[in-house]
Amino acid sequence: MTKKILNKGDWFLVEIIEICEPANADIKNPERRATTWGNYILINAKTPSEAFDKAVKIGKAGSYSFKSHEEKMKWKFAGIGDLLPIYEDIEDGAEILWKDYGNIQAKRVTKIVQTKKSY
After folding, report:
1. Which of 5, 19, 50, 99 has its CA 20 to 30 A from that of 82?
2. Which residues lie below 8 Å from residue 54, measured CB to CB, with a gap of 6+?
3. How far apart are CA 72 and CA 60, in angstroms?
4. Does the residue 5 lie in any domain?
5. Domain for residue 1, yes or no?
6. What is the mean pLDDT of residues 73-101?
7. Is residue 32 domain-resident?
């Protein structure tokens, strides 16, 4: 029997953006560079606004400081990227995300496709 989460339009895929940088980084400098991650999480909420608020809470809870090579670092929540509704029931093989590559040449398609070995 396949496990299934019935979706009543109340599931969202939300991207939490996090950055890692030295604790003493000049946060007023928009040209500074930092390691940046986009972590996708599932959120169960009645509205996109509620999903956004829940994701912000989760993102902020993941912030922390640590020491690396004698330098104090901070891993912090930067904000929300994508917030996408999931339309299907969640089960093995369900489509939860898609990307429109547009009308492109066949040779471009071969550059997008990955082999099992690349993972």
Report:
1. 5
2. 43, 45
3. 19
4. no
5. no
6. 90
7. yes
pLDDT for the residue 8:
87
Q: Is residue 45 part of a domain?
A: yes
Q: What is the pTM of this model?
A: 0.79
Q: Which residue has the higher pLDDT, 40 or 96?
A: 40
Does the CA dihedral 22-28-34-38 come out positive or negative?
positive
40-61 pLDDT, tens digit each: 999 999 999 999 999 999 999 9
17-55 exposure pattern, b = at least 16 Cβ within 10 A, e = fewer? bbbebeeeeeeeeeeeebeeeeeeeebebeeeeebbebb
Q: How many domains does the chain have?
A: 1
Residue type at 12?
F
- Contacts of residue 37, defined as CB under 8 A and 6 or more positions apart, other chains included, come to 17, 18, 19, 20
Contact 86, 11 (CB under 8 A): yes
Length of the chain: 119
Please state the rounded mean pLDDT for residues 24-52: 92
